[in-house]
């Protein structure tokens, strides 16, 4: 596919079937500089056929040696390669079944920051897969420690938070055990919207078990969330609404939310109705979460009283085209009009 | 060790020497005493003085001397010498001058020449001009040979650029576009996957929240129900207890109403109600009285017994047999 002209900084690539095995053979024999070889491999792996060849040829184990190389450029390139592997399902499974996870977790403490960033990219890629998130669960305490150290750049923080939220969706207990809730609460007031978004998503995942909900209520996270509900970024608002939705399920959450006047904010969020399809699709999650939060809050008598006045707004929502929003709105109305 | 060199004297008298080829040893300029030489050093043959240098085309080769040859050469030499001597003798010379005369050389030409040893020589000097820089060699332009001919390519004769370049351009652009399309597709695919995953996550979160809410609701309702049931049970139990208590109260009242006089009556009958004075008299005084009376009587009895015994003793002493039966009877 690519021409035979080699770019500077890339090793020569053989034709056809031999391209991948030859390059891995060069890696194995450690002839001279490894970085051009790895750069050529990175280019090749974009092609799914070559990726499949790499995975089935069992070459992934050889990368373990490269991960422990002394040159940081080699390690960085190897991590890039692994990140490309996580873009495909076969690659992800090969990565999980190989023994590369311990060296990768060692490299979290690497001296070079670009290496660390690439390692986080790889871990993020692995965590998108449920089995991968499951495999990464033992790493969660270490990741929480990294988060609390706060010496990483913003991009790395975003990746770290995203990985943590994926892992916590599978099982939130390790993160909760390592003081997840206070730590994430601090991150919720970060200056960058992407960090806030990911922190709110992680908090949403953490607030699924009952422990998490209680901690969210105790640690004064709800006032911060009310601020976030009025944030500029749509994603941040969505995730904050999700956390409120989860927290409002327990009685303490309900009472706290009602004290903090969350109801008017949620109703405001519901009442905006954009016209274009695209915008509507993006807001769907926000609308759903708000409706569910309102449903939970409506179970408290005070909330029900307040919401009964707002019934027309909810009824307007039942005319929406989307099935999920329809169902959610109907449930909300049912709960609001329930009498004991 | 076999000797590499081999020399012997031919029976004809010549001396021959042959040796196996061996590397030439280097020899220092000043020969060291042979005893010190322990290891033979082989030197570079190029720097050996003994090696013949230069063109050997016209070199005299030492002939191997043969005996007959040698003799012949010697004879030849002798003959040459003899011939020379003979020629020398036969040469005509001017006879020796007579006494008082001397031969001199005289010039007999028309013009006398001064024959002097000194050769007139004039010194002439010549000096070359200062060396000028060698001028650049003129370009060698060979003489023109051949016939002139010219040709001119008009536009459009050789090839049409636009049509020819099209396939090449197509390939180039096509490859680039294909590559970029693949990259874009890959990114789009990933973005699509992410979007799908996100949508799924949202729905999942939604449903999860709903499930939890319902669970919570269930739990609350169940707890409420249980509490109410417990409360109700409590109430019932209390009611039952109160009913039982009331019944018990009524019954006991009824029972006790007849009980009291009966009790009093029986108690009185049993003598539990007593006049303390009377009781006191009964318990303290009368026993004492009786005891005293008894004591009195005992005294009397004792005294009567004593008396009886004395009488017995009196009566039984004369006749023991009668008295024993009597005493038995009396006792």
Question: Can you offer a commentary on this structure?
Answer:
The complex is a heterodimer of chains A (340) and B (331). Chain A has 340 residues and is an all-alpha fold. In chain A, 71% of the residues lie in helices and 0% in strands. Among the domains of chain A are: 1-103 and 112-120, no CATH class; 136-206, no CATH class. Chain A has 23 helices and no strands. In chain A, helix 8 (113-127) packs parallel to helix 11 (154-170) and helix 22 packs antiparallel against helix 23 (323-336). Chain A is elongated and about 75 Å long. Chain A starts with 18 loop residues before the first helix and ends with a helix. The model of chain A has no long low-confidence stretch (mean pLDDT 80). In chain B, strand 1 and strand 2 (15-19) form a beta hairpin. In chain B, strands 1-2 form a two-stranded antiparallel sheet. Helix content of chain B is 56%, strand content 3%. Chain B is elongated, with a radius of gyration of 90 Å. Classes of the chains: A mainly alpha (340), B mainly alpha (331). Chains A and B meet through helix 17, helix 20 and helix 23 of A and helix 2 of B. Chain A: Pfam families: TPR_DNAAF5.
Short overview:
The complex is a heterodimer of chains A (340) and B (331). Chain A is mainly alpha-helical and 340 residues long. Chain A has 23 helices and no strands.
């Amino acid at each position: 596919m690519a021409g035979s002209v080699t770019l500077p900084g890339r090793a020569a690539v053989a034709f056809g079937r031999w391209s991948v095995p030859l390059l891995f053979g060069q890696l194995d024999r450690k002839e001279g500089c490894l970085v051009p070889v790895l750069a050529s491999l990175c280019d090749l792996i974009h092609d799914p056929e070559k990726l499949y060849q790499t995975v089935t040829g069992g070459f992934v184990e050889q990368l373990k040696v490269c991960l422990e190389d002394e040159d940081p450029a080699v390690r960085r390139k190897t991590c890039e390669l692994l990140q490309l592997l996580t873009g495909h399902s076969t690659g992800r499974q090969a990565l999980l079944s190989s023994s590369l996870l311990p060296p990768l977790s060692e490299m979290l403490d690497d001296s070079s920051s670009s290496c660390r960033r690439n390692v986080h990219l790889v871990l993020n890629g692995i965590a998108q897969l449920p089995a991968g998130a499951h495999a990464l669960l033992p790493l969660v305490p270490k990741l929480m420690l990294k988060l609390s150290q706060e010496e990483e750049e913003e991009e790395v923080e975003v990746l770290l938070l995203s990985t943590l939220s994926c892992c916590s969706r599978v099982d939130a207990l390790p993160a909760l055990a390592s003081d997840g809730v206070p730590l994430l609460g601090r991150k919720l007031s970060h200056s960058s919207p992407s960090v806030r978004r990911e922190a709110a998503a992680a908090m949403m995942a953490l607030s699924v078990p009952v422990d998490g909900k209680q901690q969210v209520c105790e640690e004064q996270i709800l006032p911060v969330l009310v601020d976030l509900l009025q944030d500029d970024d749509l994603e941040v608002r969505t995730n904050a609404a999700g956390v409120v939705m989860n927290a409002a399920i327990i009685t303490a959450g309900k009472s706290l939310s009602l004290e903090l006047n969350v109801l008017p904010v949620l109703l405001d969020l519901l009442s905006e109705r954009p016209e274009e399809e695209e915008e509507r699709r993006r807001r769907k999650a926000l609308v759903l979460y708000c409706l569910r939060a309102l449903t939970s809050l409506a179970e408290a008598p005070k909330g029900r009283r307040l919401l009964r006045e707002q019934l027309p707004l909810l009824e307007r929502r039942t005319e929406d085209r989307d099935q999920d929003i329809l169902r959610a709105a109907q449930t909300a109305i049912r709960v609001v009009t329930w009498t004991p | 060790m076999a000797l590499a060199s081999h020399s012997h004297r031919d029976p004809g008298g010549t001396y021959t020497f042959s040796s196996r080829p061996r590397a030439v040893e280097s020899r220092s300029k000043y020969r060291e005493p042979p005893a010190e030489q322990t290891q033979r050093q082989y030197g570079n043959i190029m720097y050996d003085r003994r090696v013949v240098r230069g063109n050997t085309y016209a070199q005299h080769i030492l002939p191997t001397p043969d005996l007959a040859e040698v003799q012949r050469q010697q004879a030849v030499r002798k003959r040459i010498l003899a011939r020379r001597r003979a020629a020398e003798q036969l040469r005509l010379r001017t006879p020796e001058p007579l006494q008082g005369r001397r031969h001199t050389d005289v010039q007999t030409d028309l013009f006398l020449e001064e024959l002097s040893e000194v050769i007139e020589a004039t010194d002439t000097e010549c000096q070359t001009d200062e060396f000028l820089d060698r001028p650049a060699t003129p370009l060698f332009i060979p003489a023109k040979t051949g016939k002139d001919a010219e040709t001119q390519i008009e536009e459009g004769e050789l090839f049409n650029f636009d049509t020819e370049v099209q396939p090449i351009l197509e390939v180039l652009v096509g490859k680039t576009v294909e590559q970029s399309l693949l990259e874009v597709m890959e990114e789009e695919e990933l973005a699509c996957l992410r979007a799908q995953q996100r949508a799924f996550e949202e729905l999942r979160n939604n449903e999860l929240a709903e499930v939890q809410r319902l669970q919570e609701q269930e739990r609350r309702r169940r707890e409420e129900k249980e509490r109410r049931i417990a409360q109700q049970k409590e109430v019932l139990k209390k009611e039952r207890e109160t009913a039982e208590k009331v019944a018990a109260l009524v019954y006991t009242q009824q029972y006790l109403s007849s009980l009291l006089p009966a009790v009093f009556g029986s108690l009185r009958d049993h003598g539990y109600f007593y006049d303390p004075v009377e009781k006191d008299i009964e318990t303290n005084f009368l026993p004492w009285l009786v005891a005293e009376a008894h004591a009195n009587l005992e005294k009397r009895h004792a005294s009567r017994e004593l008396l009886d015994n004395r009488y017995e003793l009196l009566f039984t002493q004369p006749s023991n047999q009668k008295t024993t039966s009597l005493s038995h009877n009396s006792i």
